[in-house]
Write a structure and sequence with these properties.
InterPro entries: Haem_peroxidase (IPR002016), Haem_peroxidase_sf (IPR010255), Peroxidase_pln (IPR000823), Peroxidases_heam-ligand_BS (IPR019793), Secretory_peroxidase (IPR033905). About 45% of the residues lie in helices and about 5% in strands. By secondary structure, it is mainly alpha-helical. It binds protoporphyrin IX containing FE. The site of protoporphyrin IX containing FE (HEM) has 24 residues, from α3, α7 and β3.
């Protein structure tokens, strides 16, 4: 009898341990879906409405908001550090790695509305992640829950952004920069596929077209670009043209779909880091797995996997709970 009681107790203990593990997994550390459901019940609806309005007046802001989450989360974690402005070009956002970053004023606009309704409650770091989630859905991508409960950092350093991935990084560097943030090479491929929407400035491909290092110390064009595509790119981006913008997903710019994988597979990646995904067997396999038209029906399922990867990226280095390191900013571009 005693043995039976002990085994029941052991079973209960192990099942509650299992439950604890499960709930820890579901709540992503101390983040949780619906964190503001009591403290600011309209928080997510307010962000969604601001993003919807911004996208209606300027659709290019939607991809910009998706990119903004990447740039916030990869520097010091998802803590709103990229939103801080001012300070004689010493803020993180002034780093060249953030070149062309837009959508910060959309976050400021959402924050102003949230402060009017629930002062001091919703963090800027959470607004960035919610806005990116909504932007994905409004460009035709998946709709998904994101856990919230992040606090904002009290730090923004120019040099912290040096570690951001770069268009010139090779596949090994890209992999290690993602690994440093707890993300796998599958995440690298999935998240780079956010380039299914949006554009790049010619600035980012100038070197790929005209100044690419070749054997023997020469420079020229990246030899992996098929000749016809190279002429096309050169016609769009003349030497020294930094500002013209072109689709990152050739032929499918406005649509959230898997064509970016086929473009990468067929040599039509526009920026170097996307092309690099086809330079290592492990990432080639991931690109190929999502490229086939049949994967839409039989998996792997890009939309679901992309959403999961966004949630994982949104969990990088978060400040949560009673941790004194963070605050909830009143204005996203300024420390309290
Ligand atoms: C793997 C490393 C990555 C590199 C080197 C990279 C680089 C770039 C570059 C150079 C641009 C063009 C920026 C401009 O001219 O305005 C861009 C745009 C974009 N990136 Fe990435 N990116 C990377 C990963 C990501 C990730 C992880 C996401 C989000 C999940 C993302 C989302 C976007 C989006 C949506 C755009 C279009 C922005 C717009 O149209 O304004 N990127 N990226």
């Amino acid at each position: 009898m005693a043995t039976r009681r002990r085994s029941i107790a052991a079973a209960l203990a192990s099942s509650s341990f299992f439950f604890l593990l499960l709930s820890a997994g579901l709540s992503h550390g101390q983040l949780q879906v619906g964190f503001y459901s009591q403290s600011c019940p309209n928080a997510e609806a307010i962000v969604a409405s601001v993003v919807r309005q911004a996208g209606a007046s300027n659709p290019t802001l939607l991809p910009a908001l998706i990119r903004l989450q990447f740039h916030d989360c990869f520097v010091r974690g998802c803590d709103g550090s990229v939103l801080i402005k001012g300070g004689n070009n010493k803020a993180e956002v002034d780093n060249n790695k953030h070149q062309g970053l837009r959508g910060l004023d959309v976050i400021d606009g959402a924050k102003a509305q949230l402060e009017a309704q629930c002062p001091g409650v919703v963090s800027c770091a959470d607004i960035v992640v919610l806005a990116a989630r909504d932007a994905v859905a409004f460009t035709g991508g998946p709709s998904f829950d994101v856990p919230t409960g992040r606090r904002d950092s009290k730090v923004s350093n120019l040099r912290d952004a040096d570690s951001l991935p770069d268009v010139k990084d090779g596949i090994d560097v890209l992999r290690s920069k993602f690994a440093a943030n707890g993300l796998s090479e599958k995440d690298l491929v999935l998240l780079s596929a956010a380039h299914t929407v949006g554009t790049t400035a010619c600035f980012f491909i100038q070197d790929r077209l005209y100044n690419f290092p070749l054997p023997g110390g020469a420079v020229g064009s990246d030899p992996t670009i098929p000749p016809g595509f190279l002429s096309e790119l050169k016609a769009r981006c003349a030497p020294g043209d930094f500002n013209t913008r072109l689709s990152l997903d050739r032929g499918s710019e406005g649509v959230f779909d898997t064509s970016i994988f086929r473009n990468i597979r067929n040599g039509f990646a526009v920026i170097g880091s996307d092309a690099a995904l086809y330079n290592a067997t492990s990432t080639v396999d991931v690109v190929d797995s999502y490229s086939g038209l049949l994967s839409t029906f039989f998996g792997p399922y890009f939309r679901q996997d992309f959403a999961d990867a966004m949630v994982r990226m949104g969990s990088i280095g978060v400040i949560t709970g009673k941790n004194n390191n963070g605050e909830v900013r009143k204005v996203c571009s300024k420390f309290n």
